[in-house]
Automatic annotation (TrEMBL):
Gene Ontology annotations for the cellular component aspect, listed alphabetically: ribonucleoprotein complex; ribosome
Boundaries of every KOW domain copy: 5-32
Name assigned to this protein: Large ribosomal subunit protein uL24
Quaternary context: Part of the 50S ribosomal subunit.
InterPro entries with a match to the protein in the record: KOW (IPR005824), Rib_uL2_dom2 (IPR014722), Ribosomal_uL24 (IPR003256), Ribosomal_uL24_C (IPR057264), Ribosomal_uL24_CS (IPR005825), Ribosomal_uL24_KOW (IPR041988), Translation_prot_SH3-like_sf (IPR008991)
Record flagged with keyword Ribonucleoprotein: yes
GO MF term list: rRNA binding; structural constituent of ribosome
Lineage, broadest ranks: Bacteria, Thermotogati, Synergistota, Synergistia, Synergistales
Organism per entry: Aminivibrio pyruvatiphilus
Length: 108
């Protein structure tokens, strides 16, 4: 497994699978297994029993994890799905770069 270049809060586009073309925000990342949980992607139904925390039982829809290789970052400046590069500022700070337009995505 390589280093995951996506993180919580990033906007991503699914590039393969049943949800191809959909976009969403990363809710959670699981870097040791190379998985991401994305808002509105890979929805699964789950049967929930009543409990103190959740007194109403029933069927709940929730997001399941998806492999990080199936998504691409959506660049905030150009709006295209792009690969993520690494770079350094003059001050030595590490930054993530958009490979399509070369703009800085954010500081790491």
């Amino acid at each position: 497994m390589g280093k995951m270049r996506l993180k919580k809060g990033d906007r991503v586009r699914v590039i393969s699978g049943k949800d191809k073309g959909k976009e969403g925000k990363i809710l959670r990342s699981i870097p040791d297994r190379d998985l991401l949980v994305i808002e509105g992607i890979n929805m699964a139904t789950k049967h929930v029993k009543p409990s103190q925390k959740n007194p109403k039982s029933g069927i709940v829809k929730q997001e399941g994890p998806i492999y990080a290789s199936k998504v691409m970052l959506v660049c905030p400046s150009c709006g295209a799905a792009t690969r993520v590069g690494r770079g350094y500022l003059d001050s030595g700070k590490k930054v993530r770069l958009c490979k399509a337009c070369g703009e800085i995505v954010d500081q790491v």
